[in-house]
Specification:
Blueprint: H1 2-17, E1 22-27, E2 30-37, E3 40-49, H2 53-61, E4 73-81, E5 86-93, E6 102-111, E7 120-126, E8 139-140, E9 146-154, E10 157-159
Domain START: 16-160
GO molecular function: lipid binding
Protein name: ACO12 thioesterase
């Protein structure tokens, strides 16, 4: 468990720091980058937010709140609180273009910064949990590496 949690945070950190991100769009306070490596396309979205970084962190790290602001999340159920920083959720998502609704079983790892220049981290990856096997009503999907890095820019704003 400790290795999986560590590798979850490390994978998000490595992905965000990779060289070769190409900016594809800038819209108001939102920037979108892409990174292609072989057959893998990664996306990075950056947004300036007018809330303190610790507030953004508390809102983004509790995935049960996400269905209130992410139209793709239909439900989010906490399956297991592995620790205060590690939680396993089952998320269901709406069907896309006539397909079945989707579901994910994910590990969400959160870390507060050790030093002021470090970001808050919320890392996400799919896990297998024998208590929650795939269901015929849902298309089980997988998240290899996703999450949020929250950098404080002032006492009242941050970059996500």
């Amino acid at each position: 468990q400790a290795y999986l949690s560590y590798s979850n945070i490390a994978a998000l950190t490595r992905l965000a720091r990779k060289p070769g991100w190409d900016i594809t769009r800038t819209l108001d306070n939102v920037k979108i980058w892409t990174h292609e490596e072989g057959a893998v396309l990664s996306l990075k979205v950056e947004m300036q937010v007018k809330v303190p970084s610790q507030v953004a962190f508390s809102l983004l790290s509790d995935f049960r709140l996400r269905q209130h602001w992410d139209r793709h999340f239909l439900t989010c159920e906490l399956l297991q609180a592995v620790s205060e920083e590690e939680k396993i959720y089952r998320v269901t998502s709406a069907p896309v273009a006539g397909h079945q609704p989707g579901d994910f079983v994910i590990l969400v790892s959160q870390r507060q910064p050790c030093r002021p220049q470090e970001p808050y981290m919320v890392a996400v990856r799919s896990v297998t949990l024998s208590a929650v096997p795939p269901s015929p009503e849902f298309c089980r999907s997988e998240i290899l590496c996703a999450g949020f890095q929250i950098h404080s820019t002032s006492s009242s704003s941050c970059t996500v």
